[in-house]
Here is the input.
Amino acid sequence: MKEKKDCKIIQDLLPNYIEKLTNEETNQYIKNHLENCEECEKIYENMKKKLELDNEKADKREIKFLKKYRNKLRVLKIALLIIFIIFAASTARKVIIISDLSNKAEKYEASTNYKKTTCYYFAEGNYGKGETYRLGNKIKVITDNITGEDRTIMRTYGELKTLDEQGLHQYLANVYTETKERKTLHLNENTMIESGPQNVLHTKNWWKLLLYAIPTSIRETDYNGEKCYYIANFEGDNSYSPRGMYISKQTGLVIGLNNPMKGEKTCVYYQYEFDKVTENDFTEPDRTEYTVIND
Ligand SMILES: [Zn+2]
Here is the structure.
């Protein structure tokens, strides 16, 4: 009876004994018992085998899991690398296009012989056209604005006095204004006239260019029959409209804006001609037709 009770205790202890969780005294007690009890010895051997097998299985499962995990990690790394390469290539392409256009525009920006035509259309019955002629220090600006029933034509003939830091030109000019009602003339007016071709893609340095290029989108297209890039979300220092600019591939100059103001039908476009302006373009209108206004 005593032995049977001993067996029960021993069998309860066996799992811990196999896992080496029992203390030295208990170990000795179990060893002694196993040497003298065939039944417990058998149970012990079976249990040991089973546990070893289980451990082996668990190890295998763990290795399998680790392998799977490592494979997944490798796939993730490759995917991230591909995404990064695509991102870097796309940014590099944009930086190259923008800096190339900017270099072209810079040359034209320095020109002192150009004709710039600006057309804008904001809404039904509200549109205008501007023509700027520049030859050395001379400038002529003709604007023709139509707002509903009103039409105003202004012809400005100026001589460059100063050029300020913002690229604005200060001119001393005669201004001929023509409306339906009357023709007036202001002589020797101080006027600021917006300069001609501007490098709207200008950036201070490569670092800034890189930052601006990241959100920018660029696609090739045509605008008024001219091959160009449509550049949107370019928030550069001189950008006309981050919403979208058509930049000529040939000159790097802005030739059109996308919806510069609110309203669906708005449009603005610019045309440039270089080295075609002559002295003949600066012949002023017949002054006798105009009333001279002295401010
Ligand atoms: Zn026993």
Notes: The longest strand covers residues 150-163.
